[in-house]
Design brief:
single chain; 113 residues; three-stranded antiparallel sheet; 5 helices; elongated
Length: 113
């Protein structure tokens, strides 16, 4: 199957739009995504199938065509700690207890690379 350059760019652009929308909304229906992006539902289903190879998407079955949702932990362009920063925070965490330790562990879980 040969894909023309313009079609590939449109597909990539639409894929990025889908990811951006799902990162903002966390979930949406196939029907709504198709209407918003001006394509048929089958196109969105194919796009989602391709995107699941790279992104943590979960498809959801439903009465009205189903939907798709982004994993709770995934955020696009989320700031990350460097390995050096992570190591420093882990060393500092050794002296923490109780709520302070819990908070430090949450920070590490959310931002450590």
């Amino acid at each position: 199957m040969e894909v023309k350059g313009g079609e590939s760019v449109r597909n990539n652009n639409r894929h990025q739009q889908i990811i951006n929308l799902l990162c903002q909304r966390r979930s949406d229906t196939v029907q709504n995504l198709a209407a918003e992006l001006g394509v048929c539902e089958r196109t969105i289903r194919r796009d989602i199938e391709e995107l699941t190879l790279t992104y943590p998407l979960e498809t959801v079955r439903g009465r009205y065509g189903g939907g798709v949702r982004m994993a709770d932990w995934y955020f696009q362009d989320r700031p990350k700690l460097s390995p050096k920063q992570t190591a420093l925070l882990k060393r500092l965490a050794v002296g923490l207890h109780g709520e302070d330790l819990d908070e430090m562990n949450q920070i590490l879980a959310r931002f450590a690379s």
